[in-house]
Every structure is written in structure tokens, then in C-alpha cells.
Amino acid sequence: MSVPASSRERKSYWISLVSLLAAVPLAVLVGSRGEFAAWLQRRMEPPLTVEHDGSGQGAGGSWRLISLRRLPGTLPDTSLMLAEIDLSVEAADVLQQALPCALSLTDGAGRRWDPLPLPGRLLREADPEVADRPQCTTLTIGEAGDAPLRVVELFLVPRQADGFTLSLALTGSPPILLK
Amino acid sequence: MTTFANILALLLAAAALYGMQHSTPSYSEILSPVAVPAAQGKPAQTERFVFGVAKVHLAGQLVAPQFGEPRTYTTSGKWLVVEAAAKAQDRSVSLTSAAWRGPSGLRFAMSTRIGSTLGLLGSERLEPGIPRPVLLVFELPEDQIEGGTLLVAETAVTPLSEQVEIAMDSVPPENRYESLTLARGGRIMPWSLEFHQ
């Protein structure tokens, strides 16, 4: 034989249920020790857009697109895009934490290319002067003096692709879009 | 009446639990890639790449270069060589997982006996808008070839990534050989094939 719940029991039941909805996100927030809030904040930060000839500050450095050159491709109907970026170190310890960087190339249609891995031979053929420059994956700031560091990356794209934007990703920092 | 309702609720709960227990996918199924069924002869489209089979060859022995010299690879089964093409959709991808699923459900990984050159799947990254020829080589028991399925994915270990599953036609008689020689090609077509009936 069932006994109908009192109004006090019903009230407690609903208060507990609503409290649970608040308690679970709160537990995630507290349990992550600030990491979740920091991640959320980073996700909500808009990318930093740097127009041509400008430089953008991010992750302890100042980044500037020097050139984005189109060269003959290694396959039919393709082009190689050679990107050169200058980095001026402003806060070495912050920058050290943000490396390695990752550069990608996006065209007007939204297609995205990652840089070619191990581009040494192609760089030597394209422009011997930049062949010894570091890529994002090999960049270290130990070599930095007062002069800016030059980073080069090579992308293989279809010949008809255009309207490019370079996106620079660094750990713990919003992306920097170089136009 | 209340007792009857309680018993009914208990039975319903037991039936629901039994149903859930038997319909819940296993841990390996949850982690397995999402299948994208396709047929041979048509390009298979996933969200991240397109893959199509062009030609399939079957041979009793395979001759492939090793350290610049041709080397003969024999087998107690057959060599299945698949010539295909692949392209990234809207961002660069690497296809690193290929397997052959035989009619009995046995899975065979791509052969690693002939090295990793010659445009084999995984040796080159795919770029958006640039289709590339890719080669797949399997060493299979004869009874696992007919009615097999070709499985291709970016990686076999990423949960919820897509895997193309191409139901393969039987290999036509004119594509069955005693011996098949695989040689280095050029930059555009990384391999060339020579047949011996």
C-alpha cells in the first residue's frame, strides 16, 4: 500500500533535482582547477587578423608576413606557395611555452593546406637563400638576438587556388590570421 | 491492484535492462571507425577524403625493387595489388590505414614486405584539390579474395573517424597473372606495372 508523499517531500525532491543541474557543471568547473574556464576563454577569443604589411602581437612575439610567393608546383596544375614570416621576440619565456607554432594556408573557398613536411630539397630548388631557415616545427628561440627570426613554410596547392590567408596557431593563444 | 502494478513495473524494468544489455555495442564497436559503404568503380566520399579504386590485379608472385635491385616475393596465397586514387576534401589528410576483410570476416593488413615506397598508401600526404594515385598491396589466402571488402581510413585507432568500405568485384581473368613486376615510376605516377601470364 503506497503512502502519498507529503508536500515537504515533493518540495525537497524538486529542490534536489534542480540543485543537481547546478552542481554537476560546478563540479566540472571546480575539479578542472581553472583549466576549463581558461579553455573556454581561449575558445571565445576571436582570431587576431593582421592585414598586409602589418604585424600582430601574440604569445610573446610580434609576427609579420614578409611574403607569400607562388612558385611552379611539383605536379601538373599545381603551385608551391612559399611563405616567409618574421618573428620578433618580445617575451622569450612566454614564447617558449607557446612553441611549436603551426602554420596553415586557407584559400578563398575555405580549403586548408598544411605545410609540406621536410621541404628541404624543394626549398633549395625554389630559393637557396631560404633553404636554411627554420620551419614552425624546428623553430627555437635560443638562436634569437635582436634581429627578427625568419620562418619559412612551403605549401602544395592547385594552380587555380587563390585568395589565401595564413593562419598561425600557438599554444594558449588565439590564432593569428596573416593576410 | 498496487501489488500487481509493482510486479508489472518490475517486469518491465527487467525487460528494459535485458534489452539494453543486448543492444549496447561492445567497447571495440564504440571505438571502431564509422563505416562509409561504397562499391568498386565509384568514388567513395567521406567528410575528409575521396577514394576510388581503378584497377585490381592478382598474381602468384610479386617482383619489387629493394635497395635498387628487383627482388622476387613468393607467397603460399596470392598477391592482390590495387591501383587507386585519393584526394583530400577541404584540408590536408594522410591515409594510413588499409585492410582487406575477407568473406569470412578475417581482416588482413596491407603487406609490409615490399617496403614503403612506390606510392603505397600512407607514403604521401593528400592535399585538397590535388588527386593522387595510391597503391595498395595485400598478401591473401586464395579463399579470402572473392567477395572481399577493402577498408581505408585515415587511421584505424581514432574513434568516430570515417572508414571507406568498398565491396570489391571479383578480379577478371585478364587481370590474373603468374608474376607481376612493380617498378619505380615518375613524380606523377610513382609506379609502373609489368605483367607475366
Q: Which terms summarize this structure?
A:
heterodimer; A: 179 residues; alpha+beta; Immunoglobulin-like; 2 domains; 5-stranded mixed β-sheet; 4-stranded antiparallel β-sheet; 9 strands; B: 197 residues; mainly beta; 6-stranded mixed β-sheet; 2 helices; 14% helix; 45% strand
Task: Explain this structure.
The complex is a heterodimer of chains A (179) and B (197). With 179 residues, chain A is of the alpha+beta class. Chain A is built from four helices and nine strands. Chain A has two domains: 7-44, no CATH class; 48-178, Sandwich (Immunoglobulin-like), CATH 2.60.40.1240. The mean pLDDT of chain A is 85. Chain B has one domain: Immunoglobulin-like (Sandwich), CATH 2.60.40. In chain B, strands 2, 3, 4, 7, 10 and 11 form a six-stranded mixed beta sheet that branches. Chain B has a five-stranded mixed beta sheet with strand order 1-9-8-5-6, with no helix packed on it. The longest helix of chain B is centred in the first third of the chain and has 22 residues, at 2-23. Chain A binds chain B through residues 1-2, 74-76, 78, 104, 110-114, 116-117, 156-158, 160-161, and chain B through 2, 90-92, 125, 127-130, 187-188.
